[in-house]
Amino acid sequence: MTVKRNGVYWFTHDLRVNDNQLLHKAAQELDELICLYCVPKITSFLQRFAQQHQLGKARQQFIHQSVHELSQSLRRYDQTLLIMDRTPVTVLRHLIENYHVTHLYCDQFAGSDEQQVCTQIQQEFPYLLVSQLANNTLFDQGQLPFPLSELPSTFTQFRKLVEPLAIMLPCSRPSSLPPAINVQLASLHLPLAAPEQTLYPGGEAAAIVHCQHYFATPSASHYKKTRNALDDELSSTKFSPWLALGCVSPKTIVAMLHHYEAQQGQNESTYWIVFELLWREYFYWYARRYQSTLFQFAGIANKRPLTSFYASRYLQWVKGHTPYPIVNACMKQLNETGYLSNRGRQLVASCLIHELGLDWRYGAAYFETQLLDYDVASNWGNWQYLAGVGADPRGSRQFNLDKQTELYDPEQHFIKRWHGEDNVTDIYAVDMADWPIMPEDKE
Beta strand 81-84 with 32-38: parallel, antiparallel or unpaired? Predict the structure, then answer.
């Protein structure tokens, strides 16, 4: 008797049907399919370091919109997306035990927590056939000219080795999907904000529209000159929110870029878009290589920075009440919109690490709760880099905040727009035990 092949596709950061090789694989191998998404939760680690109990409003809305769009896409295949507010281990265990699941499909995770879920489930159900693919990368692992254990220690070394590799064209969407299994679990209905209340609408359709709009302008030909702007719609590509949730694949973006170059010509700026995607690629393999070390204080360098924890300083940083108006403006923008430019991220990270003397993990964790484009590998890898415990051979990076203000906001338009000069507070207002420190002339 032929055993029916029932499978679960566990969607995480691959919320699309286009250029989804793993979904193609499931379509070819299964008789029946359950499509699953588990809403991300704040872990105890994140609560400790971010001092937050839920994701930021903007990030939640972007996730909800992206999941809703995926659900609509799957309905066109007569499929149902099961949206659950429980831990993935709990849900997967229930589905495997109650619906004769024989196959599990999921991303080849950059995050060690998600990979641990996969490992645990496979240990509990040894007969389960687990298929994992790197679903959001430019290259497959088999293309890399080195074993993962020998990942180059710097981005430059990595880039020189992978730049000659061919980036494959994106694949089409599946023509059909296996029929859905009737699961007797109540799917969560995610609240959606009105479109005008969101900075960027989530989902695959919105991702494609945004990319098409960007390449319909000449912005790509000037990208390298404008990419460090603090607050301008087309100064940078803004692809990252949709890349982070897998609403669009990097291969799709490269294919659109090549089409643009065929019509408008190549230059250093169009190359720089691929250059930035290669940074993202490096951090993905970096996270795969170092796993839980990505979150450790001493980082991959096993070098413990000199820090102290001042609760008042961390709160100043979060709220944008530091002595540095450029930092304050950036943090207020992040808190309100979930967006922060690449230059802004470097400035606020440098401030937290060097001016405030805090453990870099507090900043990385707070970013995780707020950023629309939160990507575990890029976020934690970049924070390690700036803190001097990661892939930067030159050690930690400290920016002169006054000089950076002169370079990137000389007229202070950005600072004024985001009220960076409001509620400025001296970092020495209290000591480590929160005892007030009196000014010298009042002692």
Answer: parallel
- The pLDDT mean for the chain works out to 93
Contact 401, 331 (CB under 8 A): no
Query: Minimal CA–CA distance to 230: which of 341, 109, 359?
Result: 341
Residues 321/328, Cβ–Cβ less than 8 Å: yes
> What is the mean predicted confidence (pLDDT) over 83-96?
97
**The pLDDT value given to residue 197:** 67
Residues 12 and 66 in one domain: yes
Please report which helix (H) or strand (E) contains residue 243, including its range.
helix 240-244
d(CA 369, CA 367): 5
Q: Which residue range forms the structural domain that includes residue 155?
A: 136-170+203-290
CA geometry: angle 102, 127, 186, nearest 5 deg: 40
Domain count, the chain: 3
3-state SS assignment for residue 146: coil
pLDDT per residue as tens digits for the range 288-327: 999 999 999 999 989 898 888 888 999 999 999 999 999 9
Report H helices in 247-324: 250-264, 268-290, 311-319
């400290």: which residue's tokens?
Answer: 398
